[in-house]
């Protein structure tokens, strides 16, 4: 038994708050496979319809790395289908990327692929 009532209450309250916090944090993130069974492929833009993305959700990009890649770009890179030296590029064929708050933009930086529809914009709240 606790000899100091206030101390026991504070410890119990701390444990309760930590438990609630950890359950909220782990419950938030969802993993999505971009394009579903088709994977990271042309005309994937409509794949986001009906989905509500949150900060910390993970997008899995499955593709043939000998044909495609994934580049994280800004809105200008998305519109112009161009990556820059500051763009992060991935090429494993099984890339897992965590969403940040706001718009997240992804393109395939292989010449002609983004212009042919291999790009994706995802808004995370």
Structure description:
- GO terms for molecular function: electron transfer activity; metal ion binding.
- Residues 30-125 form the Phytocyanin domain.
- The chain has helices at residues 5-28, 75-80; strands at 31-33, 58-62, 70-73, 88-90, 94-98, 102-107, 119-124.
- Strands 4-3-6-7 form a 4-stranded antiparallel beta sheet.
- The chain has 2 helices and 7 strands; from the N terminus they run H-E-E-E-H-E-E-E-E.
- It is globular.
- It has 125 residues and is of the alpha+beta class.
- 21% of the residues are buried.
- It has one domain (27-124): Immunoglobulin-like.
- The termini are far apart.
Keywords for this structure?
single chain; 125 residues; alpha+beta; four-stranded antiparallel sheet; three-stranded mixed sheet; 2 helices; globular; electron transfer activity; Cupredoxin
């Amino acid at each position: 038994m606790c000899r100091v009532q206030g101390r026991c209450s504070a410890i119990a309250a701390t444990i309760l708050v930590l438990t609630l916090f950890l359950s909220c944090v782990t419950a938030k993130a969802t993993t999505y496979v971009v394009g579903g069974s088709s994977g990271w492929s042309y005309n994937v833009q409509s794949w986001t319809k009906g989905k509500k993305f949150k900060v910390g959700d993970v997008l899995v990009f499955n593709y043939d790395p000998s044909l495609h890649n994934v580049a994280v770009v800004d809105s200008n890179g998305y519109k112009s289908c161009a990556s820059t030296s500051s763009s992060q590029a991935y090429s494993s064929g099984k890339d897992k990327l965590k969403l940040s708050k706001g718009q997240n933009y992804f393109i395939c930086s292989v010449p002609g692929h983004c212009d042919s529809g291999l790009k994706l914009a995802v808004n995370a709240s």
